[in-house]
Amino acid sequence: MTHLGLNSAVAAAERGFQIVCYDPDATLIRQLNADQAPVQEPQLLELMAKNKSRLEFLSDVAALKSCDVIYVAPDVATDDQGNSDLSMLEKLLSVAFENTSHETTIIVLSQVPPGFCRAHGRPGRPLIYQVETLIFGQAIARALNPERYILGLADAAAPLPPAYEKFLQGHGNPPLFPMRYESAELAKIAINCCLVSAVSTANTLAEICEKIGADWHDIIPTLKADRRIGPYSYLAPGLGISGGNLERDLNTIIALADQHGTDAGVVRAWVGNSQYRKGWPLRMLGEYVFSKTKDPAIGILGLTYKENTHSVKNSPSVALIRQLTPYTIKAFDPAIPSQPDWHPNLTNSPTAADAIQDSDVLLILTAWPEFKDLNLTEIAELMRGKTVIDPYGLLNRMQMQQAGLQHITLGTEPNFSQAC
């Protein structure tokens, strides 16, 4: 009942299914039965409450015996190099096999490297790999309305177990793509590689825009109008790849290429590009703040790696904070508090206004929707300085200039107001 499993279970209950939600952690189960979720997602708590009669949160493995279909879906932790720790998945998969009948269909929903499912199958037991396409901040919405189902099978030509097929059809009957285990396991990685390619391209060209007077935000609509690229392409510039999942997939491809003697130079370039992009806020501080203000007070809004989540895995904000040890920092995030071990002079602010108060520079490093509604006149009055580093362009550029604030954002030249 971590992020992937909990959101998948709640979405299935919303679709009308009776769901047994098992986790060996009895403390976590007590929290869930007390309507406390360990993760943050839009609609999660509301749908947990709405579907309480369809959701049983249990730590007793005996409850699994009543299930026709079992999803094994723990979050797979990664280290700083993107290596996966599959130990919890392996333990729970054994629990599922050992506490169910031979007719029960077991599905691995957690992301695994190619070869995992074939190596962990058991004779006479139906084991299926279903590619998850979870996006932090959109987990419920995507689980409720999947674009398609990519299914890895021991025999791709064999029919699906009836109970499992009925369950999939209950989610709007999206298209099914059955294939052998290894193809499905690699399909998930292929999807993320395509996303990284788009992100890396956008970030590289956006930086050129900052230097030559072009505006990347003018260019994005022209690319989305091209059928070969498409309206849903990941083209917004950002601060590198974060969250852990994409990094894991790049590391997997590099490892497979090294193992089999194939070329992964382009993937290594994506990794290098991501590391470079994470340094953008520090470069902007050096150019526009540190060179002009001695010992500046720094305000930071946003700590999570993206909006609508509690995760700080490879967060650009936290990475920056760790590099600013000589300076005084106040930080605010609507989902999580800052941690003392990140920085010796870091204060956790209770509100955005407190983090802004008396700062020489303000950085908005997570695109939380509420930050878009900040009053720019109040920001100018609260700040001691006039520089706002807003990589995602949450604040209105024209209004920033009218408020006398310098606006530095990705993909375009900094906006210098008259006051700056």
Straight-line N-to-C gap: 51 Å
What is the CATH T-level topology of the largest domain?
A: Rossmann fold
DSSP summary: helix tally: 16
* Whole-number count of domains: 3
Helix amount, in percent? 25-40%
If you had to describe this structure to a student in words, what would you say it looks like?
This protein is an alpha/beta fold and 420 residues long. It folds into 3 domains: 178 residues, 3-Layer(aba) Sandwich (Rossmann fold), CATH 3.40.50.720; 89 residues, N-(1-d-carboxylethyl)-l-norvaline Dehydrogenase, domain 2 (Orthogonal Bundle); 130 residues, Rossmann fold. Helix content is 40%, strand content 14%. The protein is built from 16 helices and 15 strands. The chain has a 6-stranded parallel sheet with strand order 12-11-10-13-14-15. A 5-stranded mixed sheet has the order 3-6-7-8-9, sandwiched between helices. Helix 1 packs across helix 3.
Concise overview:
By secondary structure, this protein is α/β, with parallel strands linked by helices. It has helices at 3-14, 26-33, 44-50, 87-98, 116-120, 139-144, 162-169, 181-212, 216-224, 245-260, 265-278, 280-290, 316-323, 352-356, 376-382, 397-402; strands at 19-22, 55-58, 69-72, 77-78, 84-85, 105-108, 127-130, 149-153, 176-180, 297-301, 328-332, 346-348, 361-364, 387-389, 406-408. It has 3 domains: 3-180, Rossmann fold (3-Layer(aba) Sandwich); 189-277, Orthogonal Bundle (N-(1-d-carboxylethyl)-l-norvaline Dehydrogenase, domain 2), CATH 1.10.1040.10; 279-408, Rossmann fold, CATH 3.40.50.720.
